[in-house]
Amino acid sequence: SWQLVDDDVQAETRLENEAVGTGEVSFDANAAGTFRLRCIGNGPEANAAVTIELASISAFDAQSELIAHGDETMLQWTLENSEENCEIYDGEDWVEVDANSHSVSPDTSTSYQLRCEGAGGVPLEATTHVRVLRIESFSAIAQSIRYGQEVTLSWQSHEAESCELLKDDSPVFTVPGEEVANGQVSSGTLLADTNYILRCREGDVIVDSDEIQIVIEVTITEFSARIDPSITNFNDPQVRLAKIEACMARHGGLWL
User: Fold this and answer.
1) How far apart are CA 160 and CA 171, in angstroms?
2) How far apart are CA 79 and CA 56, in angstroms?
3) CA dihedral 127, 129, 130, 133 (to 10 degrees)
4) Which of 122, 190, 245, 248 could connect to 253 by a Cys-Cys bridge, CB 3.0–4.6 Å?
5) How far is CA 253 from CA 98, 217, 220, 228, 247, in A?
6) 8 A C-beta contact, residue 166 and residue 172
7) DSSP bridge partners of 9
8) Dihedrals φ, ψ of 255, to 5°?
9) How far apart, in Å, do the first and last CA atoms of the chain sit?
10) DSSP code at position 34
11) How far apart are CA 15 and CA 28, in angstroms?
């Protein structure tokens, strides 16, 4: 805005005649720099200049835009012509922050909104996104099975590029691309206790599931009896019981 002393001067800008002596003009909020008002009257030119500096958030990002579930990353921002009076919204709450960085550990992929107060109370906002690589679930339809049976393993992952199944710490199955986010596979015939882990990755970030142990139930495959020829009175119940107890004690047998 301006005010001119001489009402007879003519403005060279596209101002209405009635705004020449006293007036104002608006510019787009993205405009910044030095603005010069030049007026021409019957005598020399009259010049005046004003410099406009915009308040802005020139940068807002995460130190690591992709993290493994449970890890932390640092949100960082740069302010121009603004008070360091900011707060961050994580989708649930606004948190006041004092410096130009803030540590976060999201449980799942989250968008963060930064809100600061610029010069003159102008509100400034910016948004950044943090992706979280996580295995949401990894389970077996049963964790105790009979000898020679199989189980179905199923999973759900988030932000993963690839996954593989580890059996007793060794890779045994690469998950097809279309099943990385949600899939299942059969263990095949199991003859002994077995441990499984699902390992997923995105770039250099790797995350492992909790371990699942499949236990083989104890089964009796054979049960027989043999008569000791040294026993002459085996029909005596007390003698039979004593011999059976002694035999079971020697061989670690089980009472049924």
Assistant:
1) 17
2) 6
3) 160
4) 248
5) 71, 17, 11, 17, 8
6) yes
7) none
8) -80, 130
9) 101
10) E
11) 17
